[in-house]
């Protein structure tokens, strides 16, 4: 597991697959923010280990890029079909 913080600090930890009890996908909402997070529940450890956290702004950027890529691919293939 490798965690990279906004400050640039890096935290690495090896997690054997046999130690993972269950993944936990959380949807967190407050009046000011909204994000999803994935954490792991580990055997013999107290608390959860955060794997990643995705906020809405990041999700919107990924969705926008994916939709733009799909639209441009469709436009490209439509243009190929019309010229042939």
Task: Detail the topology: elements first, then pairings.
Elements (H helix, E strand, L loop, with lengths): L1 E3 L5 E3 L7 E10 L4 E9 L5 E8 H28 L1
What this model shows, in words?
It is built from one helix and five strands, in the order βββββα. Strand 1 (2-4) and strand 2 (10-12) form a beta hairpin. Strands 3-4-5 form a three-stranded antiparallel beta sheet. Strands 1-2 form a two-stranded antiparallel ribbon. It has 84 residues and is α+β, with helices and mostly antiparallel strands. It has one helix spanning 56-83, and strands at 2-4, 10-12, 20-29, 34-42, 48-55. The mean pLDDT is 78.
Quick structural summary:
The protein has 1 helix and 5 strands; from the N terminus they run βββββα.
Question: Keyphrases for this structure?
Answer:
single chain, alpha+beta, 3-stranded antiparallel sheet, two-stranded antiparallel ribbon, 5 strands
The percent range for helix content is 25-40%
Task: List the total number of helices.
Answer: 1
Please outline the major beta sheet.
3 strands, antiparallel
Radius of gyration: 20 Å
Helix-strand topology string = EEEEEH
Strand content: 35-45%
Query: Mean of residue pLDDT?
Result: 78
Question: Judging from the principal axes of the Cα atoms, what is the shape?
Answer: elongated
């Amino acid at each position: 597991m490798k965690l990279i913080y906004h400050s640039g600090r890096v935290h690495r930890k090896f997690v054997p697959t046999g130690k993972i009890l269950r993944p936990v996908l959380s949807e967190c909402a407050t009046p000011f923010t909204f994000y999803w997070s994935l954490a792991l529940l580990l055997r013999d450890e107290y608390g959860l280990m955060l794997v990643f956290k995705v906020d809405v702004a990041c999700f919107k950027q990924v969705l926008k890029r994916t939709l733009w890529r799909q639209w441009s691919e469709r436009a490209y293939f439509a243009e190929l079909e019309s010229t042939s």
